[in-house]
Amino acid sequence: MKQIINISLWIIALVLIIVGLSFANKNKLYMQLSKPVIDINYNSENRFIDETDVLKEIIHNPQDTSKYLYAFDVTTIEERLKNNFAIKDAQVYKTVDGKIVAWVKQNRPIARVINHKNESFYMDEDGYLMSLSEKYTARLLVINGNVKSSYNQYYKKNLSQLDDSLATKTIIDELYQLAQLIDNSEFWKAQIEQVYVNKELEIELVPKVGNHIIVLGKPEHMEAKLNKLYYFYREGLSKTGWNEYSEINLSFNNQIVCKKNY
Q: Containing H/E element for 51?
């Protein structure tokens, strides 16, 4: 008999706890939304977005401020955030104390492209195009000249995975590979400020130090060409001086052809 009474008491206690929790959760769901908690991982020194931009995607309409917590769909908020050109990833969730938390990771551009029609946009580290920001301009490697690729043509396409029909019409994918090589090297990031595509679709580099132009030639074997240039800088220009030549041409096999400054 005593055992039955103990079991009954445990059951009653459990039911009371469940009921209490359900009322507590219901009260939290029907709470007015407090200011959301926003955490932004900028991933670089660039600042394309801020808390105000993220908050606009959570409080999407003026009437949202009068909604209860349960009425906010975190999946919809995440999708809105991910559609922002500057946002690489977003996670939104509700906490046990009735708040909305938004964690956002910003895209990191590695180059700014100015095409042959003077349209300008960014390439990000993952191979996607980003539009320019009205509130912030990133100081990056500039790619310009005879670049016959538009933002709308390649928006939401991964430049490292273009199919043959697109890749044969442009060198935008090779330019992304070159931007990656430069971005992955502290030496080249400090040395190269501009990539220029001439009328023959050959690539020229403009360095930050020295009065010379570097001719890479056709966009092929670019990593090998940069390695060759690095050794030439270390073994050649370090002895002759950075202003010895007006042009350093790497487009020939197994040799570097230089034009002297006069």
A: helix 51-58
